[in-house]
Amino acid sequence: MTKAWTAALLLACMLPTPAGAQHELRPIMPAELYAVPGVETNVYFDNIILHPDSGSLIWDADCALGTQQEERWTCVPTQGQAGDHPLTIRIVTPQMEPVLEMATTVRVIDRAAGGGEQITVLCVGDSLTASSTYTRRLVELFAADDAVDATLIGESGAGADSGNRHEGYGGWSCDRFVHNWADGVDYAEVDGRTRRQRSPFLFEVEGEPRLDFQQYLDRNNAGRPPDFITILLGCNDTFSADETNIEERIDAMFANLDALLAAFRAAAPDTEIGLLLLVPPAASQDAFGANYHCSQTRWQYRRNQHRVVEREVENYGRRGAEGLFLVPAFVNLDTVYGFPRASVPANAHADLEISRMTNGVHPATPGYHQIGDAIYCWIKSRLAAR
Q1: Homologous superfamily of the 115-385 domain (CATH)
Q2: Is 56:15 a contact under the CB 8 Å cutoff?
Q3: What is the pTM of this model?
Q4: SS (H, E, C) the chain
Q5: pLDDT for the residue 23
Q6: Which of 122, 262, 309, 336 has the smallest CB count inside 10 Å?
């Protein structure tokens, strides 16, 4: 892990609450944030620390670029602001004494980056990808990009001539992409819905199923490696974990993720792979109650997600020389207004209707678009680096 990824991840930074309880702040600040002129880039404060009530903290953002608002630092850079901009975010006491300081660099990429390039992109993931929403945003962003011609590849997606293709499947984990196999069938009807039965990357080789990314590319990209692969997995690997087994669940996730990465690398040695750090859940327990009743709490899953991100940084950070990068989409996601809501009676006898969040881990379209924005800006940064 680089020092820039966290200002004090290894420190026991304790902040007293009004009730006298103590909460450990476990900050995760990306070394770099990627931005493109005309595309909003954010750091939502709750997403970069672990605290049950981050809104009660006093935040102080310092940057020549953008604006500090109540819950975030945000900017929509202009072309004239292309370049690097230091950003420091602090938590302070009421007397403005620093409790925690985190630093990063906002890298605003020239819109002309990648001029004349024709690229292919493969997005791999679970239901967050299967919704085809952040991939649709990618299609839209590249369609408006005069510099780069991008094509998404995959066997799933919106289909037709939308260009919205991917490998995203609801309920899938790293394990399923590595091991899910069914003889002679790719899809079957399950509970009235067509479901993928075997991993798109598994093929019969010498009489047994094996990961063979080259065969996948032969079917889907004229045998050529994609320029970029993004991976957004981890929710289903760790959703039901708790304090007793989260580490072993992450260990198993990483073992399967490593196998998938090795298969990709064997057939695509020069492809740049972006591992999206696991995005946080909706901000309210209401969303978890709507989906999971009493089987999981928002705070437990938020703790799980934060630990996954910490471990992803430890295990997969500083591997740019291998063509493996961390994509910090998690800081860009609005967990309050980026998730679905519904107006419902406050209780069975109330005339008053209130807004309650209705989905724990799946964003609404605005939240998905924020994930797509982060991926687009990362790809543009890599094109600029070429």
Answers
A1: SGNH hydrolase (3.40.50.1110)
A2: no
A3: 0.93
A4: CCHHHCCCCCCCEEEECCCCCEEEECCCCCCEEEECCCCCEEEEHHHHCCCCCHHHCEEEEECCCCEECCCEEEECCCHHHCEEEEEEEEEECCCCCEEEEEEEEEEECCCCCCCCEEEEEEEEECHHHHCCHHHHHHHHHHHCCCCEEEEEECCEECCCCCCCEEEECCCCCHHHHHHCCCCCCCEEEECCEEEECCCCCEEEECCEEEECHHHHHHHHCCCCCCCEEEEECCHHHHCCCCCCCHHHHHHHHHHHHHHHHHHHHHHCCCCEEEEECCCCCCCCHHHHHHHHCCCCCHHHHHHHHHHHHHHHHHHHCCCHHHCEEEECHHHHCCCCCCCCEEEEECCCCCCCEEEEECCCCCCCHHHHHHHHHHHHHHHHHHHHHC
A5: 57
A6: 262
How open is the CA angle 295-257-174, to the nearest 5 degrees?
A: 40
d(CA 311, CA 246): 11
Where along the chain do its domains lie?
1-111, 115-385
State the pLDDT at residue 125: 98
- Taking the C-alpha atoms of residue 251 and residue 237, their distance in angstroms, rounded to an integer, is 10
**Among 353, 352, 357, CA closest to 343:** 353
Residue 309 C-alpha from the chain's centroid: 10
Single out the residue of 156, 163, 150 nearest to residue 127, CA to CA.
156
CATH class of 1-111: mainly beta
Cβ pair 167, 213 in contact under 8 A = no
Lookup result for tokens 């289903």: 236
Are 313 and 325 contacting, i.e. CB atoms less than 8 angstroms apart?
A: no
**pLDDT means over runs of 10, the chain (386 residues):** 40 38 79 98 98 96 98 98 98 96 98 97 98 98 98 90 94 97 81 84 95 98 98 98 98 98 98 98 98 98 98 97 98 98 97 97 98 98 96
What gap in Å lies between CA 300 and CA 133, rounded to an integer?
27
